[in-house]
Amino acid sequence: MRIKRKAAAAAIAGTFSVTAITVSDGLSKEPVPPALAGASLWAPDPLAPPRIVETGSVRPAPVQDVTPAFRPAPLRPVSLADAFVPSFEPSLTTWSREIASGETLDAVLADAGLRAADRVEIALALGAEYDLRRLRPGHVITVVTKTDGNPRRVELAVEDGIRIEAVFGEQLATRVLEPDPDTVTFAGETVIESSIFAALDKADIPARFAVDLAQMLGGTVDFRRELAGGETLRLLWREARVGEQVIGEPELAFAALDLGGSVYEIIWPDDGSGRATIYVDGEVLRVFAQPVEGARISSVFGRRRHPVYGNTRMHTGVDFAAAHGTPVRATAPGRVSFIGWRGGYGRVIEIAHGSGTLTRYSHLSGVTDGLAKGDRVAAGDVIGRVGATGTTTGPNMHYEVRVNGRPTDPLTDDRLAEVTERKTDDAAALTRLSEARSLLAKRLASEFARTATERL
User: Where is the signal peptide (predicted)?
Assistant: First the structure.
């Protein structure tokens, strides 16, 4: 029954479909309206041919069919802006510290993390400009490295503000950088209670000046007997400075020692000659050139226990302890009588000053270039360098004064002073004394004012 109903429905649907198609076909065959038919037949009018107007102008010649020749285009000049390629400095790391006691350069560089090959190259570079055996505690190593650990720059800061720099690039470059210090003058005043050394130390004046004073006045003033306490000492000295750092050792310029009954004054020149003038109560006493300026007297004239052999024997001169290579100067004018070696004295220079007086300079490391036997020298001339040749425990200069072949105390004998005084210009010496006194008074007043201001 259901099957019959479905068949009937399908027949009815089919009848409707046939009817719809028939109606559609009939509608499509109806005639087109006249207006639409006319519009479909429209077409644009044909274009009229252009008219050529004779104007008398020259007509262009017909273009010839010529194949063009191709040439390479010229290159545009390159400007600096086009050629500039920005370079980028890789990030750098800086490491720095002081050398400790007993350390070697290699140990410090290893602590900086440098490879063994780099440490060897750095040691060779720095060693070309500085004797690495002279490394001391307090010297500073600065290492600048790139991100890969390779060194970019290494700097060794040694004494007197000197720096040795090694720069690693396409080529290794090493140079020595020396500061350009300013000379600053200072003044101080102190009262001697027990000794000159203690008085200087208490007044915060370089205590090493006690050596210079003892050397200058040792043959004139008996410090043990004449210093009873309460004596006034006034000093003027120079320091070479880079900022707040003192370069080298301070140098005395002027000293005035008031013993009550007499005033002793000393002027040291600033020309590097080391030739000092001694005055007593405003009159020139003598001119003396220190053999080793600013050195420490390590042994005086007289009997002593020998530092090498251990027995007691006569010490025939004065020993000046100083760094290897420190200049040695003639103490009085004369003529060089000997240059060479004399057993335990090592390398020696001897100068004859007339009247049977001779000075001997021993343990030298070298002699001034060009100096020869027979040459004349003036007081203060550099004749050699401090060394450790012969029988000695370290760098020093053994200085002797011999009269007719016999040794005398260099700090008390006046014969050299007599030789030097013959060439002294008293008028010029007195002018220098007046200028030194004026400068000392001015500096002391300035120091007093500054101290008073700081207290307030």
Answer: 1-20
Q: Would the pLDDT of 319 be above 80?
A: yes
Strand, coil or helix: what is 101? Answer: coil
What is the chain's alpha carbon radius of gyration, rounded to the nearest angstrom?
Answer: 51
Distance CA 281, CA 47 (A): 135
How would residue 213 be classed by pLDDT, with cut points 50, 70 and 90?
confident
CATH number of 92-177: 3.30.70.1450, 3.10.450.350, 3.30.70.1790, 3.10.20.30? 3.10.450.350
Please name the amino acid found at residue 184.
Answer: V
Burial 376-404 (b: 16+ CB within 10 A, else e): ebebbbebbbbbebbbbeebbbbbbbbee
- Per the DSSP assignment, residues forming a β-bridge with 187 are 236
Query: What is the rounded CA–CA span in Å between residue 140 and residue 156?
Result: 6
CATH 2.60.40.10 for domain 182-268+425-453 = no
| Domain boundary assignment for the chain | 92-177, 182-268+425-453, 296-421
- φ/ψ region of 418 (left if φ > 0, alpha if ψ in -120 to 50, else beta) reads alpha
Q: What is the dihedral of CA 250, 252, 257, 263, to 10 degrees?
A: -170
User: SS3 string of 46-96?
Assistant: CCCCCCCCCCCCCCCCCCCCCCCCCCCCCCCCCCHHHHCCCCCCCCEEEEE
Q: Which of 40-49, 79-88, 350-359 has the highest mean pLDDT?
A: 350-359
- Pairing status of strand 231-242 against strand 182-192: antiparallel
At the topology level, CATH places domain 296-421 in: Glucose Permease (Domain IIA) (2.70.70)
Asked if the model's pLDDT at residue 58 lies above 50, the reply is no
Q: Is 366 helix (H, G, I), strand (E, B) or coil?
A: strand
Average pLDDT over residues 285-314: 66
Instruction: Encode pLDDT of 218-229 as tens digits.
Output: 667 877 788 888
- From the CB of residue 214, how many other CB atoms can be counted at a distance below 10 Å? 16
Which of 311, 364, 322, 359 lies closest to 341 in space, CA to CA?
364
Res 343: pLDDT? 87
Output the pLDDT for position 153. 92
Please tell me the predicted confidence (pLDDT) of residue 396. 86
| Closest residue by Cα to residue 326 from 370, 273, 380, 387 | 387
Poorest-pLDDT segment among 15-24, 99-108, 138-147, 181-190: 15-24
Same fold for the domain at 92-177 and the one at 182-268+425-453? yes
User: Which DSSP letter does residue 272 get?
Assistant: S
